[in-house]
# Entry
Amino acid sequence: MSNLDQVKPGMPWLPTRKERSQKALSFLLSVLASVVLLFTTGLNGKLGWVIAFFISYVSISFITEYRRAGIPAAQDSLLTSISRFAIFLAIIPIVSILATVISKGWRGLHWGLFTQDMSQATVNDSIETGGMLAAILGTFIMVGLALIFTLPISILTALYLTEIKGKFAGLIRFLVQAMSGVPSIVAGLFILSSIVYPITQSFSGLMGALALSILMIPTVARTAEEVLLLIPNDLREAGLALGATQWRTVAMVVVPAVKSGLVTAIILGVARIIGETAPLILVTGGGDATNFNPVSGPMGSIPFYVWKAFLLGGSEESSYRTWAGILVLLVWVLILFMAARLISSRTRKR
Amino acid sequence: MSTHGEVPQENSQPKPGDKMKTTTTPHSLADLASARVVKAPGTQPIGSGLEARGVHAWFGKKHALKDVTLDFAAGTVTALIGPSGCGKSTFLRTLNRMHEFIPTAALAGEVLLGGKDIYAAGTDVTKIRLRIGMVFQKPNPFPSMTIGQNVLSGIKLAQLKVSNTKELMEECLVRAGLWEEVKDRLGEHASALSGGQQQRLCIARSLAVRPEVLLMDEPCSALDPGSTFRIEQTISELSRTMTIVIVTHNMQQAARVSDYSAFMLSDGGPGELVEVAPTNELFSRPRDKRTEDYVTGRFG
# Structure
């Protein structure tokens, strides 16, 4: 007790040096074994090596764990290594997409991309002429409008499903789930045949926003419903027992408690529609000129810009253009997802 | 109020030493209960009595509660005791119309507050719940609000007009026995409090709308002995000005805090009221054999 000052904080549960070197050894051993496998069997190429490494790593760690602590530990290590491998497989396409888009897209990036539109340039012109202004602006206007349409409808739908639990809740839940599987081109065709042809008879940004809303409502409503279901019933009862009406309880207790979850739901909904191409090709008219007015005249969008540069191009310049458009879109989606994660993690900590 | 309220209350308030004694000597339940002086019904000047008349409750087809008739005189503390599943909580929730929030719930009978049936057609249910407050088993402060906002949440939720909210906040926290602990941290979130403090915050919250009756559903079941002791003190304080109904599994708690005790039981069917009596009588000379078996620990 006298040497109380000498007590240092430690982490005795961490692996010892010996255990760590054993782990490294088995890793090296499996690299070696995979190379041997590569030369002795029919496996070849990068993919062949990955498979060979997987087989040898799993079996070597299985054997070492079995010798150390028997069958249960070996089963544990088997599951651990398989799930590690699954993560690895899942990350490959993501990293590969990001790497391809960045490496090909950065050559098309220049300041003019954000200040000029394509009204004076064709897709095969030099990358220095023309830009994405009309496309970026159009995407913002249409996503913004879709947000305005979607927000009240989807949040109120979620509240109906979780708070009011009305007679039609089951049917509506089913319809919302079914709606989230609607192919985006069907949403576009629906607006085209129900509004554009019979009523407005012209393409516009508003029509695009309506088509996007159809896709966004189920995403936001379902996510909002899920976060609302996480609220313990105690909290609702506490509000009601204080003499509040149901509306006051929902507005002052339930919704504030899930604020961050609702923000996440909205951001996920925006991320869902920001890259939608098919409905916009059908109903917006795909303008190249900058257009601030969503109710008249064709309106461009980032996905449309990419699609057009890819479809009409053929030159190296149009290829740069396409990849730069994809890069800009991808950056926006990444920003949105990061914002969603930031908001939800910040409130969870509190 | 003061002359009547204080004499019996002061005598009957449990001291920490008493608590030790009751936990070590199992036969002191009756002694403990008889240490309280029973208040004659109707002598308390503040608060309305509550009367249950032939209350039945169902969940779907399941008959959960059968024909409970029970009076809660103004200014008294009544403990509802009985084994799990005997319908105590269900009965409590019928008293301020929280029962109806359970889908498929059904009800028969009357609950009279100040002589008027709270289930009568045309009754404003939110006004009923303002007059009959409730404290739940699990502390449930509103997570998005601060401590101070939680206390005043009932005022905001029910859109009541209060001129001096600061005084009200302090008064409620003092009455709930929490003021000294939180007076310097009213702006913190309620989740920063311990479980016992959260429960007292919930009591303070229900006091702010000035209910006449307070229903407590096992308010101490999730708490440590120290917090339980504080809440029992709070109950004794509150019973001077309001009618309290408390569901408890802890018979010593019932003996310590209540004027009347009601024993409920279910023999596999719906829960029924077996016996109601002044607490010292119920624990010292129960009339019903089943009550005697329960309070002496022979079953349950």
Notes: Chain B touches chain A through 29 residues (CB under 8 Å). The longest strand of chain B covers residues 62-72. The radius of gyration of chain B is 19 Å. Chain B has one domain: 2-295.
